[in-house]
Design a protein that fits this description.
With 354 residues, this protein is α+β, with helices and mostly antiparallel strands. Helices cover 41% and strands 13% of the residues. It has 13 helices and 10 strands. The strands form 3 sheets. Strands 1-2-3-5-4 form a 5-stranded antiparallel β-sheet. α7 runs parallel beside α11, α8 packs across α12 and α9 packs across α11. The termini are far apart. This is Phosphotransferase family protein. InterPro entries: ACAD10-like, ACAD10_11_N, Aminoglycoside_PTrfase, Kinase-like_dom_sf, Ser/Thr_kinase_AS. It comes from Rhodococcus gannanensis.
Length: 354
């Protein structure tokens, strides 16, 4: 099997890493380091690192061009560290390295959590129907627990600015689209017009994860209906917490509907709660009355379409690591069509028409 120049470049410089970690990790590094790329690496390349005695997870930004402010390792490390003493299940962080001379980019290490991935239909099919149902509700509870965290109390008061969050998000993702797009798509202009005209008032500020899907959780091997870790915090900030609910619902497939091309019908498997049940559980756990959340769901699909366009652009330029990129460009079209369809069926009049 031949190795592309990028794949060669993506192999971690283990001698440099070993020399750096020996001075900063409690207990030091025992034996020679080995590293294995985890998953497809469509976003941040993630490695399992071991010295033969202990194992860690190493996260670094993508190789090649990345969008401005995306893939910020310092943000991810900061929020995981801050949430360590809360009800939100996160890994224990070990070390942040901002010296780009070590690996060519900022990176961090965290503990390797003993958990099972359930982010694909194939993985979730290994669970029983009852386990899937408990997992769905635990996911809603986990999100509600995150949104109940007092950002100031955990040292994240300066982590972002909740005021004007939705307006800034719209502008940001419009810029991201313009930076990533390879063809003109009139449906993007249509969607942006509708989203601007129907911008909701933000009533529930707090810590926002930014990428809420089952692909970013691990479940307990001994209790597969219970989440032991919520991962991938690179988009976390302070903002409108209902944006996270919109993302969860955008990824929450239901029987009989066109599935999200990323999740491929995952939550439509037997046992998982319905979208309505997820919304009801989340609202009950948080103790809030929810407004209409259509805007947040439409925006979630639009945002994911932009992210897929960015990944497709990097892949076309040979700047991605690992597998799993076939059809990514087609996902952009599917997500934009879903967003327009959802907007056109919304009870929010300004979302239905530009």
């Amino acid at each position: 099997m031949t190795t592309s120049p990028l794949e060669t470049r993506s192999v971690l410089d283990l001698p440099a890493l070993d020399a750096h970690l020996r001075g900063v990790i409690d207990g030091g590094v025992v034996g020679p380091l080995t590293a294995t790329l985890i998953g497809g690496g469509r976003s941040n390349p993630t490695y399992r690192l071991t010295d033969g005695a202990r194992s860690w997870v190493l996260r670094r930004p993508p190789y090649g061009h990345v969008l401005p402010s995306a893939h910020d390792m310092v943000r991810e490390f900061t929020v995981i560290e801050a949430l360590g003493g809360t009800a939100v299940p996160v890994p224990h962080v070990v070390h942040l390295c901002e010296d780009v001379e070590v690996l060519g980019a900022t990176f961090y290490l965290m503990e390797l959590v003993d958990g099972i991935a359930v982010g694909t239909p194939e993985q979730a099919e290994a669970l029983t129907s009852a386990e899937r149902r408990r997992l769905g509700f635990d996911f809603a509870d986990t999100l509600a627990a995150l949104h109940a965290v007092d950002s100031e109390a955990v040292g994240l008061a300066e982590f972002g600015r909740a005021d004007g969050y939705l307006e800034r998000q719209l502008r940001r993702w419009q810029r991201q689209w313009e930076a990533s797009r390879t063809v003109h798509r009139p449906e993007v202009d249509e969607l942006l017009g509708r989203l601007r005209n129907s911008l909701p008032d933000s009533r529930f500020p707090g810590i926002v994860h930014g990428d809420v899907k089952l692909d970013n959780v691990l479940v307990d091997p001994a209790d597969r209906g219970r989440i032991v870790s919520l991962l991938d915090w690179e988009m976390a900030t302070l903002g409108d917490t209902l944006a996270d609910l919109g993302i969860l619902l955008g990824f929450w497939d239901v029987p009989g509907e066109t599935p999200n091309p990323i999740t491929r019908g995952l939550a439509a498997l037997e046992g998982f709660p319905s979208r309505d049940e997820m919304v009801e559980r989340y609202a009950a756990t948080r103790g809030i009355d929810l407004p209409d959340v259509d805007w947040y769901v439409v925006f979630a699909d639009f945002k994911m379409a932009v992210i897929m366009a960015g990944i497709a652009a990097r892949h076309a330029n040979g700047e991605t690591v690992g597998d799993g990129f076939d059809g990514v460009a087609d996902m952009t079209s599917t997500l934009l069509a879903r967003a327009l369809d959802q907007a056109s069926r919304s009870s929010v009049a300004a979302l239905r028409h530009h």
